[in-house]
Amino acid sequence: MATILSIDTASNTSGLALLRGNEIDAAYCEDGRKAAQVLLPMVQEMLQSHGVTLAQLDAIAVLAGPGSFTGIRIGLSVAQGLAFPQNIPMLGVSSMAVQAYAALTGTSHQIALVTSAARQQEIYFAAYRLDEELGVTPIGIEQVAEPQLLDIPTLPDTLASQVALVSDSDSTSAILSAVLPVSDLQVLPFIGCPVEQLARIAELRLAAGLALPPEQVLPNYVKDNMQYDSP
User: Fold this and answer.
1) Contact 103, 188 (CB under 8 A)
2) What does the pLDDT look like over 121-146, one tens digit per residue?
């Protein structure tokens, strides 16, 4: 029975979750700008309320991006600060992979196109596939197209059937639905703070032996121009 602390500060809402076996307890801060002030007290309260110490954690998972540059740095810094003293293994998971995992699990769709607004008429884009036989792969989700920054009209021309769109913007969804070469494209919900789904995918990846030492977990900003902070 794995015990995993998961941290998400990549968007406007911050959250953390404690997974113990089949049970997950989650807590949220609706104002992501306060993550630097409230995250550590939230972690302390969560662990104390369940009688869990840092030494008892099997892993710490964190959303590594893309998302808010500031938020990603805060989440990763807190996670590494907690993990280093106890040498707790870490899992850095793509925020887009978690969205795809949450959207596709329990649906008939095989592929999710995940988009997130990046300002300047650009989007973060990635594509993921669930395993047809197992429902999910041992690492939770298979990457079809790696996270990248694209102009809104520019997307891959050839896409498989049973594709769904997961987007954090209604306007982006409308544009993409019109230009994507897919008939009957279904738009699936985008979760504002998918920290519980992060915990589940982290559990799968920990069991697959994919956890890393804290110093090896790096952010994935995707967008190189650090002047802009995505929503």
Assistant:
1) yes
2) 678 888 888 765 444 455 667 888 88
Q: Are residues 198 and 87 in the same domain?
A: yes
CA angle 100, 177, 225 (to 5 degrees): 65
For residues 33 and 48, what is the distance between their CA atoms, to the nearest angstrom?
25
What is the rounded distance in angstroms from the CA atom of residue 56 to the CA atom of residue 10?
26
- Residue 207 sits in the same domain as residue 146: no
Host domain of residue 149: 96-188
Question: ω before 219 within 30° of 0 (cis)?
Answer: no
Tell me which amino acid residue 2 is: A
Cβ–Cβ under 8 Å, residues 19 and 3: yes
Q: pLDDT tens, 58-100?
A: 999 999 988 888 999 999 999 999 999 999 999 999 999 999 9
**Tokens (6 digits) for 65:** 């991006």
98 near 194, Cβ under 8 Å?
A: yes
Which one, of 197, 196, 215, 220, lies nearest residue 89 by Cα?
A: 215
**Of residues 120 and 159, which shows the higher confidence score?**
120
Q: Is residue 34 one of the residues assigned to a domain? A: yes
Angle between helices 95-104 and 195-207 (to 10 degrees): 100
Whether residue 43 lies inside any domain: the answer is: yes
